[in-house]
Amino acid sequence: MGHKPTITDIKERITQARSVTVLTGAGISADSGVPTFRGADGLWKNFRPEELASPDAFERDPRLVWEWYDWRRELLSTKTPNAAHEALVELEKRIADFWLITQNVDGLHRTAGSTQVSEIHGNIWKVRCTNCGMVESNHDVPIDILPSCTSCQGLLRPHIVWFGESLAREDLDASFSALQNCELLLIIGTSGVVYPAASFAPIAKEHGAFVVELNLDPTPNSDLVDVSFQGRARDIVPLLVTSSGNRG
Ligand code: BJW
Ligand code: ZN
């Protein structure tokens, strides 16, 4: 029935909404110059994911895994949030009931100023002791390889959720609550293949949310969502969510 909703239609819906949840992936940071995971120049290109982003890989060769993370931290240290990150900060201020779920570990949402956010795959600027479990911020570039715990000398690992590891209970609880209670879910720049985040669109849909997807390309979720826009995050997100997006 009717035409495909336009960006202006969705902007209107978002303006009217009391509760909005946003799910982001690597595509939103691509516009800050951060490589994605599965793109042509993605981070996995020269490695299979299970070779680096798994507990087994770290046990087998912690030095190799830390070198990969050190390289990514160095790359990230030069990157800053873009207009899409900034638009979501404005949205958080405007919407009474707002939650941002990000799969990104780069911390750019918090750097931009978002506070109501679950970093469900962790944060590359935090380390965790494999012996005593202590978590702390670490911004060293380069980082000492292999880094060790200041309180027990145990081996530190990135505070990141690897394949086969469970997400933190509190992040899952916050995410499910936000997905089940939102009027509108906005999904930005994720390929939608990694679980549990890949199930978030169907969960919100089942609970009655209007689901909007924004990606450069179609995804496995494109048929399920209410409307799918193709474009770059930094161009489209400001049009969808900011008051200044009205003009022009
Ligand atoms: C743009 C753009 C622009 C580009 N503008 N868009 C079968 C069923 C269910 C589950 C499983 C299963 N088999 C295995 C599993 C479990 C596994 C899983 O899902 N595997 C799949 C690959 C099948 N999941 C897990 O293990 C999770 N844990 C878990 O399930 O625990 C319970 C359990 C335990 C044991 C057994 C079974 C269950 C944990 C997953 C953690 C994933 N972590 C990673 C790596 C972190 C390491 C690190 O960063 O250092 O997180 S994987 C990697 O993918 C990273 C990302 O957060 C995540 C998602 O990627 P994302 O963000 O979607 O990026 P891309 O690159 O894939 O896509 C970018 C998109 O942007 C593209 O679509 C572009 O088009 C678009 N784009 N530029 C707009 N400018
Ligand atoms: Zn320790």
Structural features, described:
This protein is α/β, with parallel strands linked by helices. It folds into two domains: 7-33 and 81-121 and 166-241, TPP-binding domain (Rossmann fold), CATH 3.40.50.1220; 39-78 and 129-160, 2-Layer Sandwich (SIR2/SIRT2 'Small Domain'), CATH 3.30.1600. The chain has ten helices and nine strands. The strands form two sheets. Strands 3-2-1-7-8-9 form a six-stranded parallel β-sheet, sandwiched between helices. Helix 6 packs parallel to helix 10 and helix 8 (169-181) crosses helix 9 (200-206). The model has no long low-confidence stretch (mean pLDDT 94). The structure holds ligand BJW and zinc ion (ZN). The site of ligand BJW has 33 residues, from helix 2. Zinc ion binds at residues 129, 131-132, 134, 149, 151-152, 154.
Level-2 CATH architecture of the largest domain: 3-Layer(aba) Sandwich
- Categorize the overall geometry: elongated
> What's the number of domains?
2
Strand tally, please?
9
CATH class of the largest domain: Alpha Beta
Sheet with most strands: strand arrangement: 3-2-1-7-8-9
Short description, anyone?
This protein is of the alpha/beta class.
